[in-house]
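Aim 2, interim progress: modelling of the zinc ion-bound target.
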Amino acid sequence: MPRVKAEEKKVVSIEYTLTDDDGSVLDTSEGRGPLAYLHGAKNIVPGLEKAIDGKGVGETIEVKVTPADGYGDYDPNAIRNVPVRKLPEGKRPDAGEILQVQTPEGPRHVTVQSVRGDYAKIDFNHPLAGKNLFFKVTIKDIRDATAEEIDHGHAHSKGSGHDHGQEAETQAGG
Ligand code: ZN
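Predicted structure of the complex, ligand included:
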């Protein structure tokens, strides 16, 4: 029987720990259970997807992902003043808070730098932009994606069919 590999149209479940250059843990699946994602659908950063490609259940992968294969370089011009009322729920955020906003390219995590009067200074760079990412990943499961999952471009959690609110928060690394 051929070994099942991580490839396009497979849902891959991984345990992962993400650390930065200093070895500080930025994100981990520990205590949450494995993350299931649709392989080949850009659900995870390109450098990590490349490293997992072709691997099988039980394999552990350690990979360094540079900004080019991660969340991109840090863009100092991507800082803008935004009216507070245009922010999610229109509520006043705190400095340092990370918000999820809708952009033409899809949902995006941004960082509030400061709030003054009716305006917030927002850093539109991904919180992990410009950082080297060190992933340690163990593949726990690989299964065929359903037609619906392929159609949507992401994995659905087992049994529950559809839960998009959850999925938006379960992408590796933010
Ligand atoms: Zn869906």
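Residues 10 and 145 are 5 Å apart (CA to CA). Residues 166-174 have pLDDT under 50 and may be disordered.
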